[in-house]
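@channel sequence for tomorrow's demo:
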Amino acid sequence: MTSLEPIEEMEVSVQSELDLALSNALQESLDSRPQNTLKMYQKRQHEFSSWCKSIKKFSDGDFVTEAKILLYLNEVIIPRGNTRKMGPDNKPLPLSKEGVEAYVKSIIDLYKYQITMKHIIPATYPHPRGAALSAKMVCNIIIILLIFYSFNTAIYSFKMDYD
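structure tokens (generated this afternoon):
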């Protein structure tokens, strides 16, 4: 039994080195990011984590899955719209495709961190950018184009009536 103890200690030591290498690589990646990207990712990731833990109270906490991203987009992000741009009725305009994609990217970045640092096998939690999320993004583009078209048509007809 004593002959196995040094091997186990060596494995723990090697695992510690591997963990340190992963942690250092992630930190270097974060340090090389533009400050605005880092700030926005942290803000969006924190909001997603809070929603998962405090509002939805998922049993696996804030671990990122495709279904959670879709639910979060449908319940929080898309209904809220673009809080920086208001329409003629003084309500937020819908988020653009890029605006929705920015939320998705920041949450997927959280997933990558979780997979790396928690040593979770990706087969257990597959990458969240699956077929359903991709289809949702395509549908959002179509909806945004329809809203944009109807909004511009209303402005155009208003201008014609005014002339």
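heads up for whoever presents: The chain has five helices and two strands.
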